[in-house]
Amino acid sequence: MFNRSLFLILICSACAFSFAGDMVNVDELPHKTHQLPDGTKYTVITYGERNWRKVAPSVLEGLEATDRDICFEAKFDSVVPPDKLKLFGQQGTLIVSDRAEFKRLQTELRRTDNIWFAGELRKSKDGKSVELVLLHTLKQPKDLEKFELKIAALIKKGDFDGLIETGYLIEQQRTQGGNLEGGIKWFDDMGTLKTKAFETGLNLKEKSLKRDDADGLFAVALQWKEIMRRYAKFRELVERVLKIDPGHPRAQKFAEELGLEKFEGVWLRKDEVARLKLQQKQNQDRLNEEQKNELERKRKALEEAVAQRPQLLSRYQASLRVSDPTARQAAIASFGEAIGKSPDAGFGLEAAEVLVNLSDPAAVSPGLEKAIKSEHADVRRVVYEGLIWRGAQEQSAAFDLLAAALRTEKDSNAAHSAVDSLVSMGGKPAAATLIACLAADDKIVREEVIDGLKQVTKQSLNSKEAWQDWWAKNKDTFNPQ
Q1: Where are the domains of the chain?
Q2: Which fold has domain 288-474?
Q3: Chain segment 322-331, per-residue pLDDT in tens
Q4: Spatial separation of the C-alpha atoms in residues 314 and 302, rounded to whole Å
Q5: What's domain 6-140's architecture?
Q6: How many angstroms from the chain centroid is the CA of residue 127?
Q7: What is the pLDDT of residues 365-382, one digit of tens each?
Q8: What are phi and psi of 344, to 5 degrees?
């Protein structure tokens, strides 16, 4: 319904009044926005060599007249001779200067004309209200043209807040009166402009945000929902907010409403969660089947290897009984590789004992060097002890192989056996080998090594770094008794 409260304009002969009969779009006049210390913003429009603060027409319904130079826009309704004008949907009192100008207004203004008024606000004579002494009136474009021009200008400036505010102004104009220009078509066309203002403003506002601004993005999401009723867009932006910040408190409140579910720390649509859970189950079932097949394969391989153990031992030992050095070294390498790869721990233990006791330097490398890769900790233990024994027989390369192996050893029992053997051997080679083993990946193995160093050196250091510093200073003079 139209609010047909009448806005009265009185004439005062003391003021110089100007009326621009030609169209002057006030939006094209110089504008400047200021901000007060409390954060409040206001706009000043310059016209007639004077600054006018932009306000709402409702300022005339109050009692404060502290701000004298003000301006606003309103729709003209009619004149009331000899000195009054009615404005559509507004209340208050305006005072104009000149009777001749009043007659001119009476002749040239038409109902629903958009007018910009500027003047000096003051208390009324009875002190019960305020009145505006009009100094300027500017005729404005019709609604559709005016808002089209305004939207275009705001888009050019990238003023998303101005566009959103304009959308509200258009909607207010459509629903609170003033539809006297073109009936239903006018109403529909204004609706199109309103949508354009809101959509453009919200899109520009979204683009202005930083990529990780969850709060700003959520505020835009709410505006899409509340202003435009665009629930699909609201959902899209809320999902983006929750990707940026899965714990966003306000966005989380809408998650259930939007059919979202938190899955492994990420908010997803429920159908997507169901798909991922099914996929995980299928992957796990496939993995279980693969593990089952692998266990079965290993079981069969072990059975076959155990059954062939006697023949394999005989065959490899026979291959070692050759006189040609090159052929013998190749046989030792093949024997060591067989130990390292065999699924049969029994074969590995027996074969490693044979290899350790070979009177050939190749027994250490490549023989034991390949055998040390066995998956069986008991086999590696025998190889470690064999390397220590061979190292004590002045094959120093054996200690290097041992240190390299212990640095990646994960079995504490195998490591403990090797460290015990080094401690039993004692001497500077044992200490040097243990120092090299301090780089072990496994914490328990490092602790075994440190304990061995304490026994070999009679020192009481407790960290890898402390032992390394001590060895750097004492290795040349270290001579255990």
Answers
A1: 6-140, 145-245, 288-474
A2: Leucine-rich Repeat Variant (1.25.10)
A3: 989 999 999 9
A4: 18
A5: Beta Barrel (2.40)
A6: 60
A7: 999 999 999 999 999 999
A8: -95, 105
